[in-house]
Amino acid sequence: MDVTCGIDWAEDHHDVAVVDSDGRLLGKLRISDDAAGFQDLLRLLAEYGDNPQDPIPIAIETSRGLLVACLRATGRRVYAINPMAVARYRDRHVVSRKKSDHQDALVLANILRTDAEQHRPLPDDSDLARAIAVLARAQQDAVWDRTRAHNRLRSHLREYYPAILEAFADKRERLLAREARTVLAIAPTPAAAARLTHNRLKSAITRAGRQRRIEAEASRLLDVFHQAQLHQPPLVEQAMGRQTLALLAQLDAACRACDDLARDTEELFLQHPDAEIITSFPGLAVLTGARMLAEIGDDRTRFETGRDLKAYAGSAPVTRESGKSRRVSHRRIKNSRLAATGRHWAFSALTASPGAHAHYNRRRDIGDRYHAALRRLFNRMLGQLHHCLATRQRFDETIAFAAPVLPPLTTAA
Predict the structure, then answer these.
(1) d(CA 205, CA 198)
(2) CA distance 332 to 346
(3) Which of these, 293, 291, 301, 300, lies nearest to 129 by C-alpha position?
(4) Which pLDDT tens digit goes with each residue over 2-37?
(5) Count of beta carbons in the 10 Å neighbourhood of residue 82
(6) Under a CB-based contact definition with an 8 Å cutoff, are residues 165 and 157 in contact?
(7) What is the SS3 assignment for the chain?
(8) What residues does each domain of the chain span?
(9) Shortest CA distance to 133 belongs to which of 296, 311, 344?
């Protein structure tokens, strides 16, 4: 690269450095984080040969934000360099360990000058794929927030109200169930639960959406709430009940956010041309398929081989070798969102695909533990997904998990 640019990103301003192929500083500038600052950056780049046909590549420590979005819109290559990698490169240039914003921008520009082939530019995903990524990641964050809110509420109820936990212990969703949240809203304390009438309970669980066995369910809940149990002092119990209502409001908001974002994500995902291929795989529903697309994108040049995608997802093992020591283990540096989706995918595929279940059983028979066998199944199916997306074909069970070809039998002379 003849000329490279590095940008040290900050919240309200950015430091820019431009260097030539010999590492000489051509220009530096501090720009504001607004439209005027972006125009100043473009003018600086134009002074050193930047043009639409041959734009100057840029290295920056983040892949998000308005500045990055505007730089990508100009059609130039933008490299998001990990801050830990920048720290290692900084030691190559300054042994005194001093640090400044301008120096970091210079280090970033020199990273592209010397080691551009070791780094990947941001993928050229379509706007639709990037919009799906925004919604899918937000929905996944909402799920994690919902889990945290559920755990906080459950931990709090154990301190004074174990009857409500017992009442919905058999439910698959437990306190996340709409019935549980509706009953807890009208009875936030054991004393309030003991005063509930059969008709009020019937109205509550009907309002929550239950349509069958309403009478029996109301009677069951009354029996649980009328059992003898330990109590906090009345004043303390009332205070804890108020805290429960506050925690319940947070849980309700998290549940609504999960449902709304899931609906929006699925609606947008189904508009993408890759949706039909992705959802043809066993175990990949619309929402989990959207999460897969959000992390791998639709730029087919991003992962040249299935091995590259497997390493990015953390499903492929990594080898650490030194002298006579050689150890093969699973990857810890990976795309955590893609790895989490992969675990759900592999688990769901066990019941949706006979070939996937047979592959999992073979790995268990060899000696893999549960998580290792699931990871290997995800690794295999991820390679299949890469192939199907590259060749534009749907999943075929008979091809994906074909029986191994055995060598012909030979007869002894």
Answers:
(1) 11
(2) 18
(3) 293
(4) 899 999 988 889 999 999 988 899 999 999 989 999
(5) 11
(6) yes
(7) CCEEEEEEECCCEEEEEEEECCCCEEEEEEEECCHHHHHHHHHHHHHCCCCCCCCCCEEECCCCCHHHHHHHHCCCCEEECCHHHHHHHHHHHCCCCCCCHHHHHHHHHHHHHHHHHHCCECCCCCHHHHHHHHHHHHHHHHHHHHHHHHHHHHHHHHCCCHHHHHHCCCCCCHHHCHHHHHHHHHCCCHHHHHCCCHHHHHHHHHHCCCCCCHHHHHHHHHHHHCCCCCCCCHHHHHHHHHHHHHHHHHHHHHHHHHHHHHHHHHHHHCCCCCHHHHCCCCCCCHHHHHHHHHHHCCCCCCCCCHHHHHHHHCCCCEEEEECCEEEEECCCCCCHHHHHHHHHHHHHHHHHCHHHHHHHHHHHHHCCCHHHHHHHHHHHHHHHHHHHHHHCCCCCHHHHCCCCCCCCCCCCC
(8) 3-118, 132-267, 276-319+328-400
(9) 296
CATH code linked to domain 3-118 = 3.30.420.40
Nearest by Cα to 317 from 328, 306, 303, 301: 328
pLDDT digits (tens, 9 = 90+) for 249-276: 999 999 999 999 999 999 999 999 999 9
Q: H/E/C letters for each residue in 122-143? A: CCCCCHHHHHHHHHHHHHHHHH
Which tokens sit at 59? 């290295």
Give which of 134, 66, 68, 82 is closest to 293, Cα–Cα. 134
Token couple for 105? 């921008």
Alpha-carbon distance of 199 to 193, in angstroms, equals 13
155-to-49, 158, 247, 354 alpha-carbon distances in Å: 62, 5, 11, 40
Q: How confident is the model at residue 413 (pLDDT cuts 50, 70, 90)?
A: very low
